[in-house]
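Continuing from the previous page...

OK, I double-checked the sequence for Methyltransf_11 domain-containing protein against my notes and this is the correct one:
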Amino acid sequence: MMAWWCFVAGPGWDFVVAGLLCLARPAAINLVITSTGTSHFDQLQPHRYHAMRSDDQAPECTGAAYEQQHVHKVYESIAAHFSQTRYKPWPIVADFLDRQPVGSIGLDAGSGNGKYLHGHNITTQIKNGPSNPSQQIALGGRPPGQVLEEEPRYFMLGLDRSASLLSLSQHIHSVPELVHGDCLSLPFRSNLIFDFAISIATLHHLSTPERRLEAIKLLLSSVKPSHPSRTGRILIFVWAHEQGEKSRRKWAKGTLLPAPKLGSTASATSLEPDLENIEELANLQDVLVPWVLNNHADDKTTDKAKTYNRYYHLFREGELVELVKRAAESLELCFNQIDSNTPESPLSHQKDCCLIKGHGWEADNWWVEIELKTH
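Thanks. Re-ran it with the corrected sequence; updated structure tokens here:
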């Protein structure tokens, strides 16, 4: 069997790490690669092939179909309104990105409306650029030396399942590089790796423990530092089961619904919580969170708010760290954890190691920072 691959490198700008420059590409280049033997798709791992199937083909009882109904369709419907409420970076995430070395290449797996793609990301929009295609443009329109002195700069790719959210990711000063894809089927070749990655408020939308574990394994597999002196870094945020006093995610406030079981045909309206049994509800981790979307149609008779229910798995204390440990062990990485009472281990003396650099609770979320040293 003959397998074909086609890649088009269109006119644009190429990032040169060594020189901290953007070079204008004068023409599009069409690369066609052929090979004989087994088709590329036949060689894909079964779980990745399944993730690439259309949603209509997936059985209704699968996690993929469940998430299509209770996550992906919802975000496509509420994207514009949702994006208006997601504009301020979380402090821990901003600090993590600030610490990335100059020239690093990163991945935002679940980038949403791209609010983390515009800080120090190198994909700066160049308006009315020079007509000379061979001219070199310094990053951000400034000399490389000035960039080095002022702030770290990196290249970060945004990936999200929602095409509607991706379309909202462009910024007045930045046009980020975006990929329409799934965190359970990363559309990158095995030899394309990143120096760092973030997954912010994404993993809690996966409906089974196996899918959450697989997503973390793929993150661990896709991060490997480009230089032996560096370590790979990953930051993950998920919603917490343990909510603060000021949290709006409360059963009593009517902001949570019990999620239907996988394969269940029950609708959200038939799953209204029994508030008289609040203690039993408090133990639930799989929930639906309503999002009220106002219809601003001209016809006032149809101007009616519509509610969409998104699926969330609320992580208990220690659950996220345990998932990282299981993912590391399944990839045959040594696992270590630093706590506040233990001095930092010299990771440089251990090969193929996954280290929990830090973890904690922040504003109704659990987070974990991972450090990787692989060879």
